[in-house]
């Protein structure tokens, strides 16, 4: 239902020759946001993670004293990331380094102490382990089956300190567990928690950056190709995902266009979390799809457009005498059909759209039938700008120039000069607000990723539009 919806929604398209037409880039502030939300989610979802049992027999002193020890039924009771950085590295790596992670593990312990083969102490019950550790995870940014996602590359957990506390109120048991089973318990933490936390973290990262699906269905019978153009790229401050956008009428995914894919400009320096640069190719293919899907073809009853006077066959017969043959006082209807695809271009200052429409004037008869009177061909040029209000965007048409010619007539000869003069004020005064109502839809800026933009600003380039703003988590 809009031209610019495709601009933001059509993030992705199949890899073909040419340039990417939508570049999405997150800088370090954007990555920090993704890190904070991901780690918070990992903290919440990791609670209850189960570790495998640890058992063993341990010798003390000369081996005359042995202890059978086991830690079973262990679960992660609490996880807290005290810090953490998410850094991009070339060519396509994200590295999470959390140097201060605290975990609380609870479970059951069983303890037996033997002296020269005789059991001298037995105890069992609940235990709590406080763990301070460091987590290092790297993920690789990839395109898999034309979708963008992160894939776990490596993981390392190092437990700096582990303190086991039992409910026995017997310090000697805690000491013996620390001497005996604690090293095995520490290795179990490093092995199993690494896999769990890394997989969980990667899943959360993917909830933000993974693209969902290969197409997006717009209204008006238009869809957007949504597959990755090429591999994502990272440097020391940001990562960039190059997409290729092509809009198409439903059922015509393989349609080929002759529009040029021009190289996109680099994002402009700003403090915004994210940038999105959209090439004019995306907008042009959307406008072509509007034509192919007949999305802009409308019918308007002339007295419903807010004109100051009632325009019916009586009034217009002074300019077009042939209308008398269809009856006086009859209302008029105009059918507007796009005659060819809209031609879109832009500069650093405004948007320009040229088009051609056929306007069919018909008379509504007493019995409700429609009698065609004549058809005008109108070529027009519109100029305007993008309008962004908060997280909503649209377009405002500032000027409308046109030329009118008679295409055909069913009521005899028509002098086009007075019609041109009459429609000049009507099109500028009455139809310009209709155009603006159509384009100024105030749509919420969407995202193919797991976040939405806010505080959006934009900048026009000669062949692209750059949106920039902060990001917030996607609301379900």
TrEMBL record:
<dbReference type="InterPro" id="IPR017943">
    <property type="entry name" value="Bactericidal_perm-incr_a/b_dom"/>
</dbReference>
<dbReference type="InterPro" id="IPR001124">
    <property type="entry name" value="Lipid-bd_serum_glycop_C"/>
</dbReference>
<keyword id="KW-0732">Signal</keyword>
<dbReference type="InterPro" id="IPR032942">
    <property type="entry name" value="BPI/LBP/Plunc"/>
</dbReference>
<protein>
    <recommendedName>
        <fullName>Lipid-binding serum glycoprotein C-terminal domain-containing protein</fullName>
    </recommendedName>
</protein>
<feature type="domain" description="Lipid-binding serum glycoprotein C-terminal">
    <location>
        <begin position="268"/>
        <end position="469"/>
    </location>
</feature>
<dbReference type="Pfam" id="PF02886">
    <property type="entry name" value="LBP_BPI_CETP_C"/>
</dbReference>
<feature type="signal peptide">
    <location>
        <begin position="1"/>
        <end position="18"/>
    </location>
</feature>
């Amino acid at each position: 239902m809009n031209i610019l919806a495709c601009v933001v929604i059509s993030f992705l398209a199949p890899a073909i020759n040419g340039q990417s037409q939508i570049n999405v880039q997150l800088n370090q502030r954007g990555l920090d946001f993704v890190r904070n939300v991901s780690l918070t989610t990992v903290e919440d979802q990791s609670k209850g993670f189960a570790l495998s049992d640890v058992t063993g027999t341990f010798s003390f002193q000369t081996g005359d004293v042995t202890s059978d020890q086991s830690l079973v039924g262990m679960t992660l009771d609490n996880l807290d990331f005290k810090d953490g950085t998410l850094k991009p590295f070339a060519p396509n790596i994200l590295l999470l380094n959390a140097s201060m992670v605290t975990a609380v593990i609870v479970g059951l312990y069983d303890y037996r102490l033997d002296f020269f083969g005789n059991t001298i102490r037995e105890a069992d019950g609940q235990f709590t382990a406080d763990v301070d550790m460091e987590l290092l995870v790297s993920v690789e940014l990839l395109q898999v089956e034309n979708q963008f996602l992160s894939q776990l590359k490596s993981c390392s957990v190092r437990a700096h300190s582990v303190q086991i506390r039992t409910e026995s109120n017997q310090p000697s048991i805690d000491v013996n567990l620390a001497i005996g089973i604690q090293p095995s318990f520490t290795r179990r933490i490093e092995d199993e928690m690494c896999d769990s936390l890394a997989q969980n973290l990667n899943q959360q990262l993917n909830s933000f950056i993974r693209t969902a699906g290969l197409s997006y269905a717009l209204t008006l019978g238009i869809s957007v190709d949504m597959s990755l153009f090429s591999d994502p790229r990272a440097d020391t401050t940001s990562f960039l995902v190059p997409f290729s956008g092509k809009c198409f009428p439903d059922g015509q995914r393989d349609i080929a266009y002759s529009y040029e894919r021009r190289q996109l400009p680099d994002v402009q320096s700003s403090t915004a979390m994210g940038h999105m640069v959209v090439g004019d190719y995306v907008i042009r293919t959307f406008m072509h799809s509007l034509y192919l899907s007949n999305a802009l073809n409308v019918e308007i009853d002339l007295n419903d457009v807010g004109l100051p006077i009632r325009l019916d066959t009586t009034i217009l017969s002074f300019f077009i005498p042939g209308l008398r043959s269809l009856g006086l006082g009859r209302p008029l209807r105009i059918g507007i059909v796009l005659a060819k695809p809209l031609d879109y271009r832009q500069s650093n200052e405004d948007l320009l759209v040229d088009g051609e429409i056929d306007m069919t004037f018909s008379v509504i008869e007493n019995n409700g039938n429609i009698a065609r009177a004549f058809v005008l061909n109108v070529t027009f040029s519109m100029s305007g700008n993008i309008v962004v209000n908060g997280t909503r965007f649209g377009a405002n048409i500032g000027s409308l120039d046109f030329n009118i010619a008679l295409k055909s007539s069913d009521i005899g000869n028509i002098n086009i000069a007075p019609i041109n003069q009459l429609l000049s004020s009507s099109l500028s005064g009455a139809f310009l607000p209709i155009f603006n109502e159509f384009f100024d839809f105030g749509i919420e800026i969407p995202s193919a990723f797991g976040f939405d933009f806010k505080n959006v600003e934009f900048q026009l380039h000669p062949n692209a539009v750059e949106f920039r703003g902060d990001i917030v988590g996607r609301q379900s």
